[in-house]
Design a protein that fits this description.
single chain; alpha+beta; eight-stranded antiparallel β-sheet; 29 strands; 29% strand
């Protein structure tokens, strides 16, 4: 059979706008099904999990399809009406609930959140409701906090009340309120309580009455009781060495995520946002991007990201919870094209699947110009290799030349530019060096116009001696989460335990620091060289301090 697809991957006959004649509509529907069949080919199987996809334009549903299995044990396929979990796509619904209360005159976005949440400590600058909605509050991520207690998500049932108490017990923030954007679920967890206290009804009831029922989202509800039987709900899975394993959320923490819904309901939601059914004041506010105290406007608005994909304005959000992965996007410039992708397997890549559909439906979108590169001077870049620390989050990045190119964490390569300097991914990065040529910093711009600075810490990984590890071993107390950590050593590695039966082992990075990528643990010494404190750093909890008690 001759393929419908041109070499670039787009179907030759697929027009973006839906034709009015029925025969033309049917032909386009078939063409669109060919597109999604190709995009989801890896999951079009009776022995794997998969995805549901929905596509609409101009208020008309063009396609809904399912690929793969909703329940491997029960041999149930994913259908367009299959219920899956949203992940963080849920945040826009929570934001809409808050904006409805603003529209009711019961809240103001720029009021102090402590007017409704007096449990929040005073941190210096005021945390507003807008800060909670835009990830600019500086609050630490609750998932990190429970993990440091020795109970990562998935290991026990977390509830709204116990996580609320944990978040409001934090005495410090990641940064001064409003200075930076740092994605955190904690702000939206608090907003659930805000909605309940201001409306006087449970969060699920308020959103059902004010959003889901009026908009006809009849298959949408919250996972406020993960044990409840939900008809049509797909199981979530993750792939392990011996095959797929069930990977379901087992907590009752919602509002940041935890929405159970279908691609049909998501298309309906996007259509109502376009029509501004909930009111122009509510809907327009959802897409108003946030401005930091520095004046930098970030891509994040209220529960939505307002950015672009290949030059096309995109209003979207991704989601991931346990084995579920999702993406919901709309493209106003293309007759309000909407694409909903919901998968029940971790690693499916819902964002990439969505963009593959856009590429096929809107051929000819501009691509970034290829960088003008030159062969890498290995001798020159060898001087840049070493261990770097993110000066905000304190996480570690390692640059090496093991495979003949300077690479970040063994993956993305730095490309030498003809004009000088280097490109990393889609960003032109800058190294600063001292008079001897030794690196001092690596500066990486972000898509928001901000710049992340990495400080050079060491040319090679630290190899601690037994005596050096012994000087670190001890017990460290943190009152904010109520944990005393036991720190010891295993060979040349550090062991850390928050409670009996739970222990992590970390490799050394630079002197007195351990870990890679997602999390770093480092120790501080006094003038006599004695270790006095232990610090944790991660992307969503930048500097979490425990004091040595023994």
């Amino acid at each position: 059979m001759i393929s419908r697809f041109a070499p670039g991957g787009a179907p030759a006959a697929l027009a973006l706008l839906l034709a009015t004649a029925p025969s033309a509509a049917q032909a386009q529907s078939a063409e669109l099904a060919d597109v999604t069949d190709k995009v989801f080919a890896a999951w079009n199987s009776t022995h794997t999990p998969g995805c549901a996809v929905g596509i609409a334009q101009g208020g008309k549903v063009l396609l809904t399809r399912g690929y793969g299995m909703a329940d491997l044990a029960g041999a149930l396929p994913i259908l367009p009406g299959t219920v899956l979990e949203s992940g963080s796509v849920a945040k826009q619904f929570t934001a809409a609930a808050v904006m409805l209360l603003v529209s009711d005159g019961k809240l103001k976005l720029d009021d102090d959140a402590r007017t409704v949440l007096p449990e929040l400590p005073v941190y210096g600058r005021t945390i507003t409701f807008r800060n909670l909605l835009t990830h600019t509050s500086g609050l630490r991520e609750w998932s990190n906090l429970v993990a440091w207690q020795g109970w990562p998500r998935g290991t026990r049932v977390h509830t709204q009340s116990d996580v609320f108490e944990l978040v409001t017990h934090q005495t410090a923030l990641n940064y001064p309120v409003g200075d930076y954007y740092s994605y955190t679920n904690s702000g939206f967890l608090l907003l659930r309580t805000v909605v309940e206290r201001v409306s006087g009804m449970p969060f699920a009831q308020f959103t059902t009455q004010r959003i889901f029922v009026p908009l006809g989202m009849t298959n949408t509800q919250w996972r406020d009781d993960f044990t409840r039987v939900v008809p049509g709900l797909a199981q979530a899975y993750s792939r392990q060495a011996d095959g797929f394993h069930i990977d379901m959320p087992n907590d009752n923490v919602i509002a940041a995520g935890g929405l159970l819904t279908t691609v049909n309901d998501w298309l309906r939601w996007n259509d109502h946002l376009t029509k501004k059914t909930l009111g122009a004041g509510v809907v327009d506010s959802l897409t108003r991007r946030m401005t930091l105290t520095s004046g930098v406007e970030i891509a994040y608005a209220l529960g939505l990201t307002v950015n672009s994909y290949r030059g096309l304005r995109e209003i979207s959000h991704s989601g991931s919870t346990a084995g579920y992965g999702t993406y919901l996007a709309r493209y106003p410039e293309k007759n309000d094209l909407s694409i909903a992708v919901m998968c029940n397997v971790s690693g499916a890549g819902a964002t990439g699947l969505t963009h593959a559909i856009v590429d096929a439906m809107v051929p000819g979108l501009p691509r970034a110009a290829a960088a003008d590169t030159v062969p890498t001077n290995i001798a020159a870049v060898a001087k840049l290799a070493g261990v770097y620390r993110d000066t905000r989050t304190n996480t570690i990045t390692v640059l090496d030349t093991a495979r003949g190119r300077l690479r970040r964490d063994g993956g993305t390569a730095f490309l030498a530019l003809r004009s000088g300097g280097y490109q990393l991914g889609g960003s032109r990065v800058q190294f600063t060096t001292d008079a001897s040529g030794k690196p001092v910093t690596l500066r990486v711009p972000t898509s928001d116009g901000d710049t992340v600075v990495y400080a050079f810490m060491a040319a090679e990984r630290w190899t601690p001696s037994a005596a050096e590890l012994a000087s670190i071993a001890g017990r460290y107390r943190n009152e904010e989460i109520g944990v005393t950590f036991t720190v010891g050593s295993a060979g040349a590695r550090l062991t850390i335990s928050p409670r009996v039966g739970v222990s992590d082992t970390l490799s050394a990075s630079y002197r007195d620091a351990f870990g890679d990528g997602d999390e770093t643990i480092w120790f501080v010494r006094d003038k006599q060289g004695r270790v006095t404190a232990m610090h944790f750093g991660s992307a969503r909890a930048w500097d979490f301090v425990s004091t040595r008690v023994r």
